[in-house]
Write a structure and sequence with these properties.
The complex is a heterotrimer of chains A (306), B (359) and C (436). Chain B has 359 residues and is of the alpha/beta class. Chain B is built from 15 helices and ten strands. The N and C termini of chain B lie far apart (51 Å). Chain C is 66% helix and 1% strand. Classes of the chains: A mainly alpha (306), B alpha/beta (359), C mainly alpha (436). Chains A and C meet through helix 1, helix 6, helix 7, helix 8 and helix 9 of A and helix 1, helix 10, helix 11, helix 12 and helix 14 of C.
């Protein structure tokens, strides 16, 4: 780490402190990242343990296997031992617990993301107008689902959904997840509009542009990175949410985190680690997308050299 | 009324056969090896016989979601497998459909169901399927040469060091604590009637509290033992049997101070498919399915006529009889769960237990 | 914020100076009209979302608050006795009672009738559970008596006292009277480890039954500790990230952002894997000879587990606000201080540190707010000593089914969080919340 330069006149004490500081930082970064990466090698364990076996440490290929990934497919199947033909795959598609959970997660995730992004973007446009009345109060209410503990939201939804028939329905969960994703959409979209010169739209209108043209030509390109990263945040929020699902979902609506919750408490096997590995790779992809978008947005607005 | 429904459903199944629109019922049980035994012995044959499907779901204790669902008015469970005291309590609170036990099939030799089921197995709202017990088990590799053998040993941290696993509830723990403290099984419930008795049990639990890992789902104790997180743990006897005999884990059960209980099938009030649920219960608690279940896990069938049919474990070589909680040699110091005591006092004692747990 | 009035209308030329607008209306009227229109237009954009959030978030929480004071288990299932309590409101302990301090035969007759009804409708357990909340040990009294209700005969007072002498407990009658009213603050009292005594005065529950106040204290204490730990860990790396050239800091930033984007359950699972007795950390310590194989450290299923896992999970929420503040601090100030003779530590504490205080405030407050409501992580790694208040709310929602108490506890937690949220908005402003 020679990226940080020490002044030439630094004393020995300063030098020692400087390198100690870098070591401390390195350890903290290790603390941040190690727990996430550790699950990746462990998920290839050939044994049903959560720690490195002797064979794994000596890099013996026998110490590694894909059995826990296979288990993601076979767990919950009606006939996991059958020959792996098209019928077997149909069985996987229809009955495997993790596959069912993944389907639910994706359905609920996408639907709630669309809902949150559409409503959130519209609202962010209103909120970023200087003439918006009660802006602070309304903003406070709209951001609060992110701040209020999930257990409280889930408790409230349990009572509310029980009395309105929305409990145990996809619609109920989608609405709840959309609510939880909305703050992220609002925050990311309003961030792209910070410093936006509203006289631009006025100028365009004075030059004869229709409101739709103004939106498509001026506002849309500007907020698009924010909308997409807001949507990704909303999707991840839904994709990772388990408390509301625990409280208001039925057995038909098990999602991946719900299945993980079961798995961690009951059939604890490295299967959970292989699922975790897939999710880590998924989050790496998401992070990359969001980072690229953020840089693009900053470049567009001239906030950073890019 | 219920008989009528049962008969109608039985007839319609018999007449229409596959032509009848298939119903999907949701059966909630305790997960793990136990749920698997039920799927193999009850669900699959019933699905084959009726063309209906069973959606098998798990809970730490199915009695709690039933109560939550009925009180909130979103019932999605058709059949649930619950402990005796919970069956009585839920029935007392009007949360269960009544079951007409006279409609249950007779034994193959013609003995009516009422006589074929062992005493207490049939109630207004529930039909028992198994007899099981809470025992404690230890990891034999941790106690070579000096193995624990009595319930008192579980509470002896000096003689038998290591973490302990206990179910996160008052039930069974208090009884075991008193038995370990020298109270004879037939005096346990009298003693727990008084606050002093409860405090005495908690004081005994206090002696190991710092070393306890609490579990909630029945699948956890074998897992905690296998992971080395605990040296010994209370558990449902069948789970330990399946881990030890079925998977070859080095676990040994200590039967001293075991607590016997029934598991019963119930139908939550307002279940979506009451008719099919009743039909399922009637089928599953028949002589043969009950006997078949005992070849998947070491729980005793609730019908006398099933006992003779119980043979080998599904590995084809292990004799089931000595692994049953009711085997005479396992019953030397045993306590039969007093369901009336727990039906009446569970709420109050749980409250006290939680205060103790969190302090 | 409130610059609305001074804003010019979009359709009017600025600084044109005339008193009237193009259509002849006075300028200030035209301006006002245009401003109102703009305000309405802005509001209409927000309205659909606001309506949605009110429906799916505000209303449910409102209903929960309602639940915390409303419970009709007693009044709905014990109509005769409830009516008797209403009709005899003046009859308080000590006044208008029989010589034995108990209500008279008519009250016991109402009780007997209700018990018979409860037996018929299978509601004795429900009523008993309600009374039991305030007087532990009374649930069994109701179920037992209801089971014998059809054998009761007048005089009912003697008959019921014969079934169980607890019916002669004046405290029980006080509790039943309070339970018979549908609305009560009783669940808030319970949530604060308080109860009514026999005279109807509020008192603390005995020490060995206190649960909630110690748990609130533990939640606040652990959250504070986690905030401090996060600050201690986040400060050096945020400082490093802020000072490094962008191309390096962007790479290191991934270390902070990846955890942020990784599923909470994945991170919790990872910690379980690491911290088990037979897990990676203990294996490593044993291999290095730091602990013996029998002396493996218990890091999970206790407070330490909750503390470590939550610190890791919340750390990015501390790094990001600190980083964004530190990035704006020019390094020149510290250099200037140094060249004026300040020691490195003086330069840091007197010049650099004060400028980072806004970031510290934002980070600590955010982490603290998020920590007090945590549920999943403590539930999985916390054992019994690492449980937080949310876990007890979940317990009462899902296990004990004392929903009113759960709602009261949740309301108290909500109140605390809103207070912190308001503070955050005052000090930092929710507009300044950013991710990534």
């Amino acid at each position: 780490m020679s990226m940080l330069k020490l002044p030439a006149h630094a004393s020995t004490g300063e030098r020692i402190w400087h390198y100690t500081y870098l070591v401390i930082c390195g350890l903290i970064f290790l603390f941040l990242i190690a727990p996430i990466l550790i699950v990746i090698p462990l998920s290839f364990n050939a044994e049903p343990y959560f720690t490195f076996t002797q064979k794994m440490l000596s890099l013996d290929p026998d110490g590694y296997s894909l059995r826990w990934y296979d288990r993601i497919l076979t767990f919950g199947m009606t006939a996991p031992e059958a020959i792996r033909d098209s019928n077997w795959w149909r069985d996987v598609w229809e009955n495997a617990s993790w596959i069912k959970a993944a389907k639910n997660s994706i359905i609920i995730g996408i639907a709630s993301t669309i809902l949150a992004t559409a409503l959130g973007t519209l609202a962010a446009l209103g909120l970023s107008r200087p003439e918006m009345p009660f802006r602070r109060l309304i903003m406070g209410v709209l951001i609060s689902p992110m701040i209020v503990p999930l257990i409280i939201t889930a408790t409230g939804l349990f009572f509310f959904y029980s009395s309105t028939g929305l409990a145990h329905t996809y619609v109920g969960i989608i609405m709840a997840h959309a609510t939880l994703g909305i703050p992220f959409v609002i925050i990311t979209v309003t961030a792209t509009l910070v410093g936006f010169d509203h006289s631009l739209t006025r100028a365009a209108q004075n030059l004869g542009a229709t409101p739709i043209t103004v939106f498509r030509q001026i506002i849309m390109p500007l907020i698009l990175p924010g909308v997409i990263s807001g949507a990704l945040f909303a999707f991840v929020t839904s994709f990772d949410e388990v408390v509301v699902v625990l409280f208001v979902a039925d057995f038909d609506q098990q999602t991946i985190p719900r299945q993980m919750w079961n798995g961690i408490r009951e059939q604890i096997s490295p299967t959970i680690l292989s699922v975790a590995t897939i999710l880590v790779i998924f989050s790496i992809l998401l992070l990359t997308t969001v980072e690229l978008l953020r840089r693009r947005s900053e470049r567009l607005r001239g906030l950073s050299p890019g | 009324m219920k008989t009528h429904l049962l008969v109608v459903s039985a007839i319609s199944v018999a007449l229409a056969g596959g032509a009848q629109a298939a119903t999907e019922i949701t059966v909630m049980s305790w997960g793990g090896a136990y749920a698997k035994s039920q799927v193999e012995a009850y669900h699959k044959p019933w699905m084959a016989a009726t063309g209906n499907t069973v959606n098998s779901v798990d809970a730490d204790n199915p009695a709690t979601p039933i109560k939550a669902q009925v009180e909130a008015g979103n019932v999605s469970i058709d059949v649930a497998d619950v402990e005796y005291s919970d069956a009585i309590r839920l029935c007392d609170e009007g949360l269960l459909e009544e079951i007409d036990t006279s409609a249950l099939p007779a034994a193959p030799d013609g003995t009516p169901a009422a006589d074929d089921f062992i005493e207490g197995a049939l109630t207004d709202c529930a039909v028992a399927n198994i007899v099981w017990s809470t025992v404690y088990a230890y990891d034999t590799t941790k106690f070579e040469g000096n193995a624990p053998s009595t319930i008192a040993d579980f509470f002896d941290l000096e003689g038998f060091p290591g973490k302990r696993g206990l179910r996160k509830s008052a039930k069974a723990n208090l009884e075991m604590a008193l038995m370990a403290d020298g109270v004879s099984p037939d005096e346990v419930y009298d003693m727990l009637e008084s606050d002093e008795g409860v405090e005495r049990a908690l004081a005994k639990l206090d002696t190991i509290k710092d070393e306890v890992v609490w579990w909630e789902a029945g699948a956890q104790p074998p897992q905690l033992l296998a992971d080395g997180e605990v040296a010994m743990s209370t558990a449902y006897n069948g789970r330990i049997f399946n881990a030890a005999i079925g998977e070859g884990q080095p676990f040994e059960i200590v039967w001293d101070g075991q607590i016997l209980d029934f598991d019963l099938f119930v139908v939550p009030k307002g279940a979506p498919n009451v008719e099919a649920a009743m039909d399922f219960i009637s089928f599953a608690t028949g002589t043969e399915p009950l006997a078949a279940q005992a070849s998947w896990i070491s729980y005793g069938p609730a019908r006398k006529s099933s006992a003779d049919l119980v043979g080998l474990f599904n590995d084809g070589k292990t004799e089931m009889a000595p692994h049953m909680p009711t085997a005479p040699e396992n019953m030397q110091v045993a306590l039969v769960n007093n369901f009336e005591f727990w039906a009446d006092r569970d709420t109050e004692i749980s409250e006290r237990f939680n205060a103790w747990l969190n302090n | 914020m409130s610059t609305v009035a001074s804003d010019t209308s979009p359709s009017l030329p600025v600084d044109s100076g005339p008193i009237t607008a193009a259509d002849g209306t006075p300028l200030h009227v035209a301006l006002q009209r245009a401003t109102r229109k703009a305000r309405i237009r802005a509001f209409l954009l927000v309205a659909p979302l606001l309506a949605f959030v009110i429906l799916t978030f505000v209303a449910p929480i409102g209903q929960m608050l309602w639940r915390s004071v409303e419970n009709d288990s007693f009044s709905a299932n014990m109509p005769a006795l409830t009516a008797w309590f209403k009709a005899n409101e003046a009859v308080q302990p000590g006044a208008g009672l029989d010589s034995d301090g108990l209500p008279g035969e008519d009250a016991f007759a109402a009780l007997a009738a209700d018990l018979a009804g409860a037996r018929e409708n299978r509601t004795a357990g429900v009523v008993g559970t309600r009374v039991n909340y305030d007087l532990s040990g009374s649930r069994s009294l109701f179920t037992k008596s209801a089971r014998r209700a059809n054998r009761l005969e007048a005089p009912y007072k003697a008959a019921l006292l014969d079934v169980d002498e607890d019916w002669g407990n004046p405290e029980l009658w006080g509790v039943m009277r309070r339970s018979s009213s549908t609305y009560s603050a009783g669940f808030y009292l319970a949530a604060l480890d308080m109860q009514y005594d026999a005279q109807g005065n509020v008192e603390s529950v005995p020490d060995n039954r206190r649960i909630y106040v110690p748990l609130f204290v533990r939640t606040l204490w652990l959250s504070a500790l986690i905030s401090v730990l996060c600050l201690v860990l986040a400060y050096p790396i945020a400082h490093l990230l802020a000072r490094l050239p962008l191309r390096y800091s962007n790479i290191l930033m991934i270390f902070v952002l990846l955890p942020f984007w990784t599923s909470l359950l994945v991170r919790t699972t990872s910690w379980m894997v690491l911290m088990q007795s037979q897990g990676v950390v203990n294996d490593l310590l044993v291999a290095m000879g730091i602990v013996s194989d029998d002396g493996r450290i218990q890091m999970m299923y206790n407070q330490i587990g909750t503390l470590i896992a939550m610190t890791h999970i919340l750390l990015p929420f501390m790094v990001l606000p600190l980083y964004s503040v530190m990035k704006t601090i020019p390094h020149d100030y510290v250099r200037a201080a140094r060249s004026l003779g300040a020691t490195p530590s003086t330069a840091f504490w007197k010049v650099y540190f004060p400028q980072t205080v806004p970031g510290i405030g934002a980070g600590v407050l955010l982490v603290f707010i998020l920590a007090v409501g945590y549920y999943i992580t403590p539930a999985l790694v916390g054992g019994s000593s690492g449980q937080l208040i949310s876990n007890l709310i979940a317990f009462h929602m899902q296990k004990s089914l004392n929903w009113s108490l759960a709602a009261a506890l949740a309301s108290l937690l909500l109140f605390g969080v809103i207070l912190l949220y308001w503070l955050y908005d005052r000090l930092i402003g929710i507009d300044n919340m950013k991710f990534g």
